[in-house]
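Everyone, carefully examine this protein record:
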Amino acid sequence: MTYFLITFIVMLIVIAIMAVGVIFGRNAIKGSCGGADKGDCVCVKKCDKRKRLEAEGKV
């Protein structure tokens, strides 16, 4: 039971630390292409979604 309580407390501390980042407005984690429908892709090899968006002229 001691290991469970220690693990539970450690997990609560980790969640609290992550929440601090959200509270202070830290940017969300993004993929290598910069998120949804933005034109700032820095990918060397583009994914299928990116190729489709470029073909449709949305980027």
User: Anything to note?
Assistant: The CA atoms of residues 3 and 9 lie 10 Å apart. The chain has two helices and no strands. The helical segments are 2-23, 48-56.
